[in-house]
Amino acid sequence: MTSPTALRAHDVTAETSADRRATRPRVGPSPARLVRGRPDDPAWVRPALLGLLALTALLYLWDLGASGWANSFYSAAVQAGSESWKAFFFGSSDASNAITVDKTPLALWPMALSVRIFGLHGWAILLPQALEGMATVGLLYAGVRRWTGSPAAGLIAGATMALTPVAVLMFKFNNPDAMLALLLVGAAYATLRALEAGRTGTRGYVGHPVRWLALAGALVGLAFLAKQLQAFLILPALVLVYLVVAAVPLRKRIGHLLVAFVAMVVGAGWWIAIVSLWPAASRPYIGGSQDNSILELTLGYNGLGRITGDETGSVGGGGGNGGGMWGSTGILRLFGSEIGGQVAWLLPAALIALVAALWLTRRAARTDLLRASVLVWGGWLVTTALTFSFMAGIFHAYYTVALAPMIGAMVGIGAWLTWTHRRSVAVLAVAAGTVALTSAWSFALLGRSADFVPWLRWVVLIGGLAVAAAIVFLRVLPRRLALGIAGLSLLAVLAGPAAYAVQTTTTGHEGSIPSAGPTSGQGGPGGGGTGRPGGFGGQRAGGQQQGQAPGGGQAQGGNATQGQGRTGGGGAGGVGGLLNGSTSSTRITAMLQADASDYRWAAAAVGSNSASGYQLASEEPVMAIGGFNGTDPYPTLAQFKAYVAAGEIHYFIAGGGMGGGPGGSGSSTSSAISSWVEDNYTATTVDGVTVYDLSGATS
Q: What is the SS3 string spanning 468-504?
């Protein structure tokens, strides 16, 4: 049971709620309980939770098809996986299995299954992502509530995450970050359940600590299959907290962690082992690698290269403190003009809450579950934030969606601790300072988009400062009035991100590096720079990439018609760029579909984005020469010649890739292929696009 020392450490501890759960009789689920909630909950709890989930559904499902194909690079792989189970398993860019995407494929699988069920539409691709977002918010609520004993803390945590602009963006987009966030929140939850089970002495099959810890390890392993080594950023927090806090002997703690490690290896390794052992001649080339190796992709391009900036096949090197293609690194990176409006609205508040929570629980027992939850969420937050701040390799602003659950958890816990310690002058002073700082920071962030609801920044600043002044007097105010001030403080700090969230959910986003919220200045490729070659050109519009459209016009993110290739009347087509998918005209689509069954690939193009739009429009396989960047050494010139000689490729569409080679190709291999095609086949211009018919006689 709870020790007197632990009770003195904080007014209501996670240990007391854990003890109550351990002795509470189990009640099976029923329709009435789903609506009413737990028997001992206040009447407002379940409606508030349902309201939170409804708000999340509204944000994440609203006009889901407005983004068209979203990131056509992944959408093409989803289309391929919906047509071919082999392409589904490997994450191939096309149904004829030429080359894979440059990630492990777990995040693609729910989207491919959705397309198999509902057909090929933008909303069918994005529906699983939105559902993953709703599940993440619900799981975060459950986790924060469980180890604070406060439904309000869970609701604040869930609302903070749901309203984070980059979360709204990525749970309506088809990059793998949505699946990564869900699985890692699940791993954190399972680890804390393992700590709780060990402390309360639960020994049932489901409740045994080692089984919960094995589940946590398996979820981290599956997260690896979503986005590889980024999944491991949670490990320091999980391992250290369990090793220090678990209420079992040290020898058992080490043994439990070894079980979790085995579960993680199995969760990630089964797919890696199959791909590594599969004969290379009968599987697609591993996109993003330089030697057709999933291990090289894991440790190089998607691994240590992201930290050091040494990424063979990347479009550019790291930034370093002096800046570079991926922006300047340093402790303030997450607060800069590129990233601040995406995720950093409540990041200072979360860090203050972390320090304050550790101070308030400093006298708690080693096994205190509230402090353990603070260390898990806070430790994961610090590890991830520091990694993002200093990594010199490829970095995009949308990666920061990984921070949203931890920020939400710390804000929820911090708000609850403030309320339970509102008799303390020091706690109220810190809380007032935090609200004032957050309001001023929101004022600054909103000022970066001066034309976006210009009056809001002043309301946030003035209202936030007024509420901060009132917080100082919470200790002497009646409970109802104190609750009203607490609610107003939440409105003040959440108004800015909520406005950005609404703008994000009502705007379509396309391309490889989407950005949440309205225009907030120009940055590097992490969110839409200017003047970059090979697809980096254009200015951000509505937080998106705006570049040169096919046929010479301007293409702006959010045009679903463009993204899905539904041009009418033989309108212009275009090969796209490094970061934007191609657009197929009606004539080009008809060409690709004609006699497509006679060929393995309806066409080939340099770079995955160049190939993707044509494949999505025609629903026929289009080979992506050189993978995403056009820099992968596949196929070689000899292999390409063999495919052409065997009559397996119908057309070659010129352009695409990173630029710099004949026809816009991106590497010596793809340049050689482009040159060979140009030298041996006759070019035809179709709606502004140069096309070569490889089935005819050489020129």
A: HHHHCCHHHCCHHHHHHHHHHHHHHHHHHHHHHHHHH
